[in-house]
């Protein structure tokens, strides 16, 4: 079961990974197997990677472990994740990075969880606005301007926000009302253009890093 969970994590099938780790945890817990602690950490990470804010520690079987020293950092991450609090999440990451990186599974997933958190925090933050300058999101997501625009493009492309990115003005324009056909075509073109530029920029940076 635990091996199956790790396989699903590798495949990025987060719901299946969560189910596998949950079953493994319950099995280990029933028989007093010390591997239950690692499995509990894994199922929390799988839950976050799946985009769920449901607290795994709400269950009676897991609640009793929430205050264990080795579980506390993971529980803190989960609370920050559920609150869309990027700043607190990053602080916990930095404070306990050595502990997280000592586990191969958690080390692989840590940055992916942060990416997921930033994406959902972005979606939650922009919801009340009609137009939002991407500069505002730098402080919320704790990333630079290029990364903000990449996350905006991803949110639009994945359908998480009904908006388009005006790359020339660095503005995220919400589409709450039906646009005229020319307006829709213009915003769609701007979003495609922005996506292409960001992909080219990322590719260039990766090539430069490999050549250094």
From TrEMBL:
Keyword list, A-Z: Proteasome
Its name, as the record gives it, is: Putative proteasome regulatory non-ATPase subunit 6
Which SUPFAM superfamilies does this UniProt record tie to the protein? Winged helix' DNA-binding domain (SSF46785)
Tell me which Gene3D superfamilies the record gives.
1.25.40.570
A single Gene Ontology CC annotation of this entry is: proteasome complex
Q: Which InterPro entries does this UniProt record tie to the protein?
A: 26S_Proteasome/COP9_Components, PCI_dom, WH_DNA-bd_sf
Q: Which domain of life is it from?
A: Eukaryota
Q: Which residues form the PCI domain?
A: 17-179
UniProt xrefs under SMART domains: PINT
Please name one Pfam family that this protein belongs to: PCI
